[in-house]
Write a structure and sequence with these properties.
Strand order of the largest sheet: 1-2
Radius of gyration: 28 Å
Number of domains: 1
Helix content: 55-70%
Largest sheet: 2 strands, antiparallel
Structural class: mainly alpha
Number of strands: 2
Distance between the termini: 73 Å
Length: 413
């Protein structure tokens, strides 16, 4: 082999070796660059709304498949649905006295909206002969409710990482698709009303809120926060027509039961809005550690009521309004509505206390609306004398948001 051939061969080997080293260095640089990029992506998903709608679509599609699978594979559980249908049947046959609208587990104890909904199900599912059709309707309700909640999270600026937590509850699937309780309908109308509040559609929001209350009385737990939101949004004089709209819905929906006679009116009000009702001890979930005698005592009820009112007062003064910071002058300042709309830059470099003082002066944001309503509900739930398993639907979709809104370190949230 000639010396020139050897030289060319050595040159080629050297060139190949250099090329491989260069390629290895580039791969190492790309690998090192991929780690920060992945870290940035994870951080953004945890703290911002990056990939929000893509994740939301994945969650919803997964829930479509999972809910359909549950309905197909898991047996339906009869608890109250047959009673609801029996009560609707009595109503559809012309009875308007709430004392006489009964089923296997007793008389109807829910407002008129409940009867109207289950009257539709009585027709749709042929009484109780076509339970799968009713399950499909409740499955669709579950998905629609989830979509509305996701929209609320987006409006409030909640990070993408919270979305999977909205769809991992075994009990929620059971409450909706396997038990057919009335709680999901009340919460669905409530969440739509919150969506309208966030979009400043005050009258429509109040009408939907009152509609939710016409299905189940637990919606009253949100009332203190709703009143505060409307006061902050438009002031007291302009909020009064909203109160009129709220009561008008209740009056109109109750007319079939309140018009016939004074006795049917009294029976409706005492059954549908019985604030003194005491649930059976055997069904309670939250106070099982308390002896039954204490659970049923008036003293225990007074303690819970006092705690409820006190917590609402604290949150009302320090979280929902500026009364705790500015005193009663805050009420005078907001009597005719907010003083303006807060700019994000205005609170960017403020301490948490300074942010609260500043935010308490301006019009309610979507973040504020959700925080106020959800915290009012949680206070009421904590102070409730009795919670049943289906009541989980009252707050399940709110817990991730409330945890995110705390000032805890992210790893504790």
């Amino acid at each position: 082999m000639s010396s020139s051939t050897v030289a060319r061969s050595n040159g080629h080997s050297t060139s190949t070796s250099s090329s491989k080293k260069l390629q290895q260095r580039q791969e190492q640089q790309q690998s090192r660059g991929a780690v920060p990029a992945l870290t940035t992506l994870v951080r953004d998903v945890l703290t911002s709304q990056r990939l929000f709608w893509l994740t939301a679509a994945g969650v919803l599609l997964g829930e479509v498949a999972l809910t359909a699978l549950i309905i197909k594979k898991v047996p339906y559980t009869e608890i109250d649905y047959a009673t609801y249908i029996q009560q609707a049947d009595v109503f559809l046959r012309g009875e308007r006295d709430y004392f006489k609208i009964t089923g296997d587990t007793g008389p109807c104890v829910y407002p008129a909206g409940h009867l109207y909904i289950y009257s539709l199900f009585h027709i749709f599912s042929s009484g109780t002969t076509n339970i799968p059709a009713a399950q499909l309707a409740f499955g669709l309700l579950y998905l629609l409710n989830l979509a509305v909640v996701i929209s609320l999270y987006h409006l409030a600026g909640a990070p993408t990482a919270l979305l999977p937590f909205l769809a991992i509850s075994k009990r929620l699937h059971s409450i909706y698709a396997l038990r057919l309780f009335n709680d999901p309908f009340a919460m669905f109308f409530f969440y739509i009303s919150v969506l309208l509040l966030c979009r400043k559609k005050w009258t429509s929001a109040v009408i939907l809120f009152s509609t939710a209350l016409s299905i189940k009385m637990n919606i009253l737990l949100f009332m203190p926060a709703l009143a505060t939101i409307l006061f902050r949004a438009v002031g007291l004089p302009r909020a009064l027509p909203f109160a009129a709209a709220f009561f008008a819905v209740q009056i109109l929906l109750s007319l079939p039961f309140t018009l016939p006679s004074p006795s049917t009116r009294a029976h409706y009000l005492s059954q549908a809005f019985d604030l003194s009702r005491v649930f059976l001890y055997k069904w309670t979930v939250n106070w099982r550690m308390v002896p039954e005698s204490a659970f049923l005592s008036k003293g225990f009820a007074r303690v819970l009521l006092g705690a409820h009112v006190s917590l609402l007062g604290l949150f009302g003064a320090w979280r929902w309004t500026g009364i705790g910071f500015l005193g009663w002058s805050w009420l005078r300042l907001h009597w005719n509505g907010p003083v303006g709309v807060i700019a994000p830059a205005a609170v960017q470099h403020k301490t948490p206390d300074e942010k609260k003082k500043l935010e308490a002066t301006f019009a309610p944001t979507a973040d504020y609306i959700l925080s106020a309503l959800f915290s009012a509900n949680l206070i009421g739930i904590i102070c409730s004398r009795s919670l049943h398993y289906q009541f989980y639907s009252w707050y399940a979709h709110q817990i991730p948001f409330l945890l995110w809104r705390t000032e805890l370190p992210i790893h504790l949230k």
